[in-house]
Specification:
The complex is a heterodimer. By secondary structure, chain A is mostly helical. Chain A has helices at about 1-20, 50-75, 90-110, 115-145, 155-185, 195-220, 225-235. Chain A has one domain: Cytochrome c oxidase, subunit III, four-helix bundle (Four Helix Bundle (Hemerythrin (Met), subunit A), Up-down Bundle), CATH 1.20.120.80. In chain A, helix 5 (about 155-185) packs antiparallel against helix 6 (about 195-220). By secondary structure, chain B is mainly alpha-helical. Chain B has a single domain, classed as Cytochrome c oxidase-like, subunit I domain (Cytochrome C Oxidase, Chain A, Up-down Bundle). In chain B, strands 1-2 form a two-stranded antiparallel sheet. In chain B, helix 3 (about 80-115) packs across helix 7, helix 4 (about 120-140) runs antiparallel to helix 5 (about 170-200) and helix 14 (about 445-475) runs antiparallel to helix 15. The longest helix of chain B is centred in the N-terminal third of the chain and has 37 residues, at about 80-115. The chains are: A mainly alpha, B mainly alpha.
Chain lengths: ~240, ~600
């Protein structure tokens, strides 16, 4: 659970810093009248509802993945734990997902320059590489199943399927959003502000999923074993 | 770089919202069934929650009848008893309390109290309700499957929850887990809305520190729920895989009925960690909205500003943060490291500090106040007493050495029913009596309301107070039948009968409330826009009940905090949040 603890400390710190900046230290009964409203110094625009919504959702998803990681490390302590061999295709998949993330970032830059053609191509590349990543994940599953590493034969196998499966489901959800964005871009004459926001949100979500995947991959190939050992010593 | 034109000491910028494009319903179906209006969704949520709540109330009668007259009622066998215990607990905690506070009051009050036209993502909000409804139906449908619902206890601890000895092991447990997963998915959609609406859709002038405490409570609870429910989600998914695919996440190697199961090396303790990582914050997910609502009820009906508003807000935040790191106190008897237990005991007892602070502030708000003993006020006062009572037994149970002998006895049952059963339910009733005039435009009957209050309040004490003694005697919870023991005297059985008779009576007495609720819909006294002369924004809507979009042509502008009561020099004893300040007017 210390993974969850770390994640929670992170969330709580962000939330409390934000609350202090929002004025929870003020005394509301001493002030009256219409508060002076001003744009934040530096002219930054307030975040849109979509952006805040995504941030909150990422906190929830991060919570889910941290808990899965915590469960992984706790269960990994048992004597019957036997990690399955890692299919080589996962390295290719990692590359594909990274490429997808880069493509979406390119789309964001293009959208900010209002380069509609570039946005379309980049989004398409991002979607295709993400889809290839999913196919690669299914490939990895099949490879393991052919080698008779079933979910029921060892908890480590089960965790492999569970972690990759939950991650893939999140990516599929992302692809739906990406498809809607792509559809909007295709129909649009020029890149509007709303479209740019849409593309940005997709890119942020993709970077998050890449980050989660990298940590997850490190756990699965055993690079995080030392970390797991420290966590267990902390809280048991 | 700072902008020189911005004066120092101004309140921070309110979330600025351009007036939104509202979704307009075109047919009866999109207006009242698949509605995207938060107010309609709120009624749907509350209606569904109350309906399953009544089912859970009936199940509690089944439990009580068995405890009072063991074996005397033919249809209550051990299986039915355990199924009733499980379903009563799960429905009340998750499907009733959580849903009604966040889905019901959250949806209705957040947009109105922060001056928004609707939730930020109305479509997602609608989905949230429908997924919740499906989750409820899946849960209730387990009664119609062979074997019936699961009887694993609401904690669903493996390994027993999925072994064949437990009732409902065929379909009941699967439906329960699927239903919970759906509930969490639905809730996440709703929770996202509540949080983002509070952050983004506040009207001009509505700074965070000008929000009513109800909104603070619901906001904090929604944030906690978003962070805590994934714990239950992970636990449910993994338990479901253990049950259906034969994985060994939680299931240790074991022999059942002389047959060796295929499970190897799973950790039931891991389930307990994940479950209680959700389970404890859940208590505060229910309690924080109740805290918030009670603060508003007390302030309005005592015509006085809430004492220590800022500390109340800090206390809500502190309770929210602390409650995420106390889950281990539900596992004292699971064989944990003593230092681990020490840590959890310290954090648990530390929660008493912000909680006590809130109680003092409520009491100090009442001090020398112009208290109107209206029905909502009575319920708020009833909450105060009950919560203190339940909280103090919590201090006993928070200590490891006191908890070990008391755990799994009726003392625990009495404690959590007082603190998170009766107390929040009293707030729900109070809140319904308080906001009913806004929702329907008519008052509820005061006389019936008071009768309802006294029966419910005194009845609840008569039911749960004696249970503490039964628990101290060592009477265990969840036992189908006590039989002969050396330590429980025969008089305990008599006490159990008394409790059961009162529980049946108090349960039936709730029909007074429902009669009042439906009768007042048509025949209640017309309420007008602001019958309680309250200052907060939801009472200042141009129409009552508020129309689609809440605020007519223009969003309100907020000039002060929501507790401007009995302000010296003001024309009335309250100043609405959106009334422009008069020159020379003094703040309270």
């Amino acid at each position: 659970m210390s993974v969850m603890g770390l994640f929670f400390i992170f969330i709580a710190t962000v939330a409390i810093m934000w609350l202090v900046r929002q004025g929870v230290l003020e005394s509301p009964w001493l002030e009256e009248g219409e508060v002076a409203h001003y744009r934040r110094a530096g002219g930054a625009e307030p975040p849109t509802a979509g952006r805040v919504g995504l941030a909150v959702f990422l906190a929830v998803a991060g919570c889910l993945f941290s808990l899965l990681a915590a469960a992984f490390f706790m269960r990994g302590d048992a004597p019957d734990w036997q990690m399955p061999p890692i299919p080589g295709v996962l390295w290719v998949n990692t590359f594909l997902l990274a490429a997808s993330s880069v493509a979406l970032q390119v789309a964001v830059f293009a959208a900010r320059r209002a380069d509609a053609e570039r946005v379309k191509t980049a989004l398409l590349v991002g979607a295709v590489t993400a889809a290839l990543f999913l196919i690669g994940q299914i490939w990895a599953w099949r490879e393991l199943l052919e080698l008779r590493f079933f979910a029921s034969s060892n908890a480590a196998n089960a965790f492999f399927y569970l972690l990759t499966g939950v991650h893939a489901l999140h990516l599929i959800g992302g692809l739906v959003a990406l498809a809607r964005t792509t559809d909007k871009v295709r129909g649009a004459e020029r890149v509007t502000k709303a479209l740019t926001t849409s593309v940005e949100l997709c890119a942020i979500y993709w970077h998050f999923l890449l980050f989660v995947w990298l940590l997850m991959f490190a756990m699965l190939i055993g690079w995080a074993d030392g970390f797991g050992a420290i966590c267990r010593r902390l809280l048991s | 770089m700072t902008d020189a034109s911005v004066p120092q000491n101004v309140a921070p910028p309110p979330a600025e919202v351009a007036d939104v494009e509202l979704y307009h319903a075109h047919s009866w179906i999109t207006k009242y069934v698949f509605s995207q209006d938060a107010k309609v969704i709120a009624i749907q949520y509350a209606g569904t929650a109350i309906t399953v709540g009544i089912l859970a109330l009936v199940l509690s009668w089944v439990i009580r009848l068995q405890l009072a007259f063991p074996g005397a009622i033919p249809f209550i066998d051990a299986n039915v008893y355990y199924q009733s215990v499980t379903m009563h607990g799960m429905i009340m905690v998750v499907y009733m309390l959580t849903a009604i506070f966040l889905g019901g009051f959250g949806n209705y009050l957040i947009p109105l109290m922060v001056g928004a036209r609707d939730m930020v993502f109305p479509y997602v909000n609608m989905l949230s309700y429908w997924v919740y409804l499906i989750a409820t139906l899946v849960l209730v449908s387990s009664y119609f499957f062979p074997g019936g619902p699961t009887g694993a206890g609401w904690t669903l601890y493996p390994p027993q929850s999925i072994l064949t000895g437990t009732p409902g092991h065929e379909y009941g447990i699967i439906l329960m887990l699927v239903s919970l997963i759906l509930f969490i998915v639905g809730f996440t959609m709703g929770g996202l809305n509540y949080v983002v609406t509070v952050l983004q859709a506040r009207t001009r002038g509505m700074t965070l520190m000008r929000m009513p405490l109800t909104v603070w409570g619901i906001f904090a609870a929604a944030v906690m729920a978003l962070l805590a429910f994934p714990g239950l989600f992970v636990a449910c998914v993994m338990l479901l895989l253990d049950r259906t695919l034969g994985t060994s996440f939680f299931m240790p190697s074991l022999v059942e009925l002389g047959e060796r199961k295929d499970y190897v090396g799973g950790s039931p303790i891991l389930f307990q960690h994940l479950f209680w990582f959700f389970g404890h914050p859940e208590v505060y997910i229910v309690a924080l909205p109740a805290f918030g609502v009670v603060s508003d009820l007390i302030s309005v009906h005592a015509r006085k500003n809430i004492f220590g508003y800022r500390m109340m807000v800090w206390a809500i935040i502190a309770i929210g943060v602390l409650s995420m790191v106390v889950w281990g106190h539900h596992m004292y008897i699971s064989g944990m490291d003593p230092w681990f237990g020490f840590f959890f005991a310290v954090t648990t007892l530390a929660i008493a500090v912000p909680t006590a602070l809130k109680v003092y502030n409520w009491v100090l708000t009442l001090w020398h106040a112009d208290i109107h003993f209206t029905t909502p006020m009575l319920f708020a006062l009833g909450f105060l007493v009950t919560f203190v009572n339940g909280g103090i037994t919590g201090l006993y149970l928070g200590n490891v050495i006191v908890d070990v002998p008391l755990s799994a006895t009726l003392f625990v049952v009495a404690h959590f029913h007082m603190v998170m059963g009766i107390a929040p339910v009293l707030v729900i009733f109070g809140a319904i009596y308080h906001w009913y005039p806004k929702i329907t435009g008519r008052m509820m009957d005061e006389r019936l309301g008071k009768i309802h209050f006294w029966i419910t309040f005194l009845g609840a004490y008569a039911i749960f107070f004696p249970m503490h003694y039964l628990g101290v005697l060592g009477m265990p919870r969840r036992f189908y039948e006590m039989g002969e023991t050396a330590f429980v005297p025969a008089s305990a059985a008599t006490l159990n009968i008394v409790i059961t008779v009162i529980a049946l009576a108090v349960g039936f007495a709730q029909s007074i409330f429902f009669y009042n609720l439906f009768k007042s819909l048509k025949h209640g006294e017309p309420a007008g826009g602001n019958p309680w002369r309250a200052a907060s924004l939801e009472w200042q809507t141009p129409e009552t009940p508020p129309g689609h979009g809440n605020w007519g042509k223009q969003l309100p502008v907020v000039y002060r905090w929501p507790y401007a009561y009995s302000v010296p020099g003001a024309p009335e004893d309250y100043l609405p949040q959106n009334a422009p300040p008069v020159r020379g007017e003094r703040s309270p």
